[in-house]
Write a structure and sequence with these properties.
The structure is a single chain. Helices cover 0% and strands 50% of the residues. It contains no helices and eleven strands. The strands form two sheets. Strands 2, 4, 5, 6, 9, 10 and 11 form a seven-stranded mixed β-sheet that branches. A four-stranded antiparallel β-sheet has the order 1-3-8-7, with no helix packed on it. Strand 4 and strand 5 form a beta hairpin. The chain is globular and about 40 Å long.
Length: 128
């Protein structure tokens, strides 16, 4: 079983930055595909960024150039650095994992139904 705990959410003005963290336990993160998803009020959950076992990342078009996903294998932790935040980035942010050692673009799905393990989420609110 993989346990995931997010932290780092909060309220920020448009143009500001936040860094989210996701601490993993139960499995070493270097053997996982891990991603960030978000859900805005009244909307479905969407994939934001994902990083594969060797550290290659993919991003949703809406966040390219503003968000950076990374991981620290020694700390078994996933990060999402969010810059130039916009009000439309507001939502509950979740990290999710697939137990899979994988390297390649097919290893970085942004579909939530690919991910069996989820954290509880952390709220991000961006005001204009």
């Amino acid at each position: 079983q993989v346990q995931l705990v997010e932290s780092g959410g909060g309220s920020v003005q448009a143009g500001g930055s936040l860094r989210l963290s996701c601490a993993a336990s139960g499995y070493i993160i270097s053997r996982l595909v891990v991603g960030w998803f978000r859900q805005a009020p009244g909307k479905g959950r969407e994939g934001v960024a994902v990083i594969d076992s060797v550290g290659t990342a993919s991003y949703a078009d809406s966040v390219k150039g503003r968000f950076t996903v990374s991981k620290d294998n020694a700390k078994n932790t996933l990060y999402l650095q969010m810059n130039s935040l916009k009000p439309e980035d507001t939502g509950q942010y979740y990290c999710a994992a697939i137990v899979r050692y994988c390297d390649g673009p097919w290893c970085r799905p942004l579909r939530e139904d690919e991910y069996p393990y989820w954290g509880q989420g952390t709220q991000v609110t961006v005001s204009s």
